[in-house]
């Protein structure tokens, strides 16, 4: 379960910077399509981010209907599933 995480360098070409939220959400979406579920802790550890950042991304993806939030992560939304509010 490995996604290549593209990183950018800072203005001086030094340390890699974590991906921006939109890019992270694309990567999360790819993981959901490939594996069916993602873990907040796993993504945070692999990408060097806080669990809060990943949780915010998952919450935004869920609001867009692209996944369903579960405790500790998210699962892929079924193609015919409708969001209930």
What does this structure look like?
With 85 residues, the chain is an alpha+beta fold. The chain has a domain of 59 residues: Winged helix-like DNA-binding domain superfamily/Winged helix DNA-binding domain (Arc Repressor Mutant, subunit A, Orthogonal Bundle). It has three helices and five strands, in the order E-E-H-E-H-H-E-E. The strands form two sheets. Strands 3-5-4 form a three-stranded antiparallel sheet. The protein has a two-stranded antiparallel sheet with strand order 1-2. Helix 1 packs across helix 3 and helix 2 packs across helix 3. It is globular, with a radius of gyration of 14 Å. The N terminus is likely disordered.
Which terms summarize this structure?
85 residues; alpha+beta; three-stranded antiparallel beta sheet; two-stranded antiparallel ribbon; 3 helices; disordered N terminus
What is the CATH T-level topology of the domain at 18-76? Arc Repressor Mutant, subunit A
- Tell me, briefly, the overall form: globular
Question: Based on helices, strands and strand pairing, what is the structural class?
Answer: alpha+beta
* Main sheet characteristics: 3 strands, antiparallel
At CATH level 2, the architecture of the domain at 18-76 is Orthogonal Bundle
* Number of H/I helices: 3
List low-pLDDT spans. 1-8
């Amino acid at each position: 379960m490995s996604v290549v995480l593209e990183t950018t360098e800072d203005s001086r070409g030094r340390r890699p910077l974590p991906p921006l939220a939109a890019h992270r959400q694309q990567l999360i979406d790819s993981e959901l399509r490939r594996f069916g579920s993602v873990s907040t802790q796993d993504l945070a550890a692999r990408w060097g981010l806080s669990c809060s950042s990943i949780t915010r991304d998952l919450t935004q993806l869920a609001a867009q209907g692209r996944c369903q939030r579960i405790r500790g992560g998210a699962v892929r939304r079924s193609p015919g599933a409708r969001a209930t509010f």
